[in-house]
Fold this protein.
Amino acid sequence: MRIEEQMMMSITHHDEHLVDRVAMLAMRAMIALQPTADLGPDGRPAFDDLMEKTPIAEGVEYGPAMVGGVHGWWCRPVGTEAGCAILYLHGGAYAVGSARAYRHFGGQIATRARAPVFVADYALAPGRPFPAAVDDAEAAYRALADTGASRLAIVGDSAGGGLALVVASSMTRAARKGVVPRPVATVALSPWTDLALTGESITTRAGNDPLLTSAALQAARQRYLRQHDPRDPLASPLYGDLAGLPPTMLHVGEDEILLDDARRYVERLGAAGSAGELHIWRGMVHVFPANLALLRAAREATDDVGAFLRGRLADPV
């Protein structure tokens, strides 16, 4: 492990475990034999089936609900205190993914953070393109605050990770006006922060990433944004105002093409004077923390996320 610190920013490089190297070799071989993943509407059943394989967390109660007009699932650890909640925004390139499929991963985070997690079924493209996902995520956050949760955190992965960072920024601005409580923390796993696709790793990691391609991201961007400017901060948080944001944690695999989306975001976060920490995991791929059943790195990363959230949700506002 190697840690770099600069101003308000820290970057931690995690070595690869031998057991994970063996597992990743087997995973890569299996993926190479499969058809290319469909990140459009036709790919929703397969994507949900994959995500539902995340192990169920013990001691967590699950149930469908509607918060702020947004459907989703609650993941409530038994015995948690009132007054805090986590909004989870799932991945899936803004076109696939569901709260039901992500409830098991939401429960894993909930039990580690010792706080209830609401996994939101925000709007999906192409039927409901940008900015509908942003509108839904913000509505869910405001409604959680209206229920009496004064300590709120936002977590997301992939496209949902980028969306979590967008909502953290917009709710921080709203908090300055006294409209909602400011988020106490944000966590983004392999976030898609730059829909303009300008990161060097889009090219330099193309041969290492078995899950994502530039072409797939371009198609996803078109479904979600249509002709809208990809540098709009509501679409790409990399281009937003990052001053005054809550403490932010990012995790990313060293082998994924979105590596620079995370790296550049945390660098901009530090330059803006906001606290951020980035964890780069050697040998890992996109949203590896969800693979808790197979990877030791996934369990360690999810434990880190839980401890980070637990500490900030416990602080009095």
About this structure: The CA atoms of residues 148 and 317 lie 13 Å apart. The mean pLDDT is 95. The chain has one domain: 2-314.
